[in-house]
Amino acid sequence: MKKKLSKIIILVVIFIFCLYGIKKVAGKFGIHILEKSNIETNYEHEWDNISKKDKKIIKKAISLAKEKEKLEYVWGGKGEIMTEERLDKLIGYYGEKQYPLDKKDYIGKQAFDCSGLVYWVYEEASGVNIGYSTTQQQENLEKYKVKGDLQPGDLIFTTRHVVMYIGDGKIVQSKNKFKYPEGGIHEQPIGWYAKGVAYRPIDYINERNNKK
């Protein structure tokens, strides 16, 4: 009896999917089905609506971020070369638990936390300070929230964290305090970060430059 009932349920489900369409039924249950061709097309045209001037800044910022891959995450790091004196100050301010690696893993290298990385690359690429911390950055970029599709260079914020979208469905970030590759700076697929709040720093940069 149970087997017969199971078969009937399966047949009913198949009938519903055939009648209304897989995507429509899946949507009712909060399941999003991606179409490969649409994804590839979106990636292919990600740069289409970006001006030549803006492309130059964004591509430089992305290139700078990618160059820093494999560096360790440093809480409070904003792009400075880490010295023992500076590291001791940070430890005194934020606490030793935020710096779990050996001192040699930090000293003599450029230091970035998540907001420090995106601050530094945009400062270098454009000369505009978008903010040192995630809080400052979100406040500065509030008017430039992304309402449509992501474009390369956009910043995505989650709780107390920020990543940069670099195109082709990927982000770069200074992830966490654990040793690379678990932590540190690296590229990865956008994954669940796509659900974060995105802002467009290039629009903020253009506004600031127009006021000079």
UniProtKB/TrEMBL annotation:
Classification via PROSITE patterns: NLPC_P60 (PS51935)
GO BP terms: proteolysis
Gene3D superfamilies documented for this protein: endopeptidase domain like (from Nostoc punctiforme)
Residues annotated as domain NlpC/P60: 51-203
Pfam families: NLPC_P60 (PF00877)
InterPro entries given in the database record: NLP_P60_dom, Papain-like_cys_pep_sf, PG_Endopeptidase_C40
Keywords from the UniProt entry: Hydrolase, Protease, Thiol protease
GO molecular function: cysteine-type peptidase activity
Family: Belongs to the peptidase C40 family.
Name the UniProt record assigns to this protein: NlpC/P60 family protein
Species of origin: Intestinibacter bartlettii CAG:1329
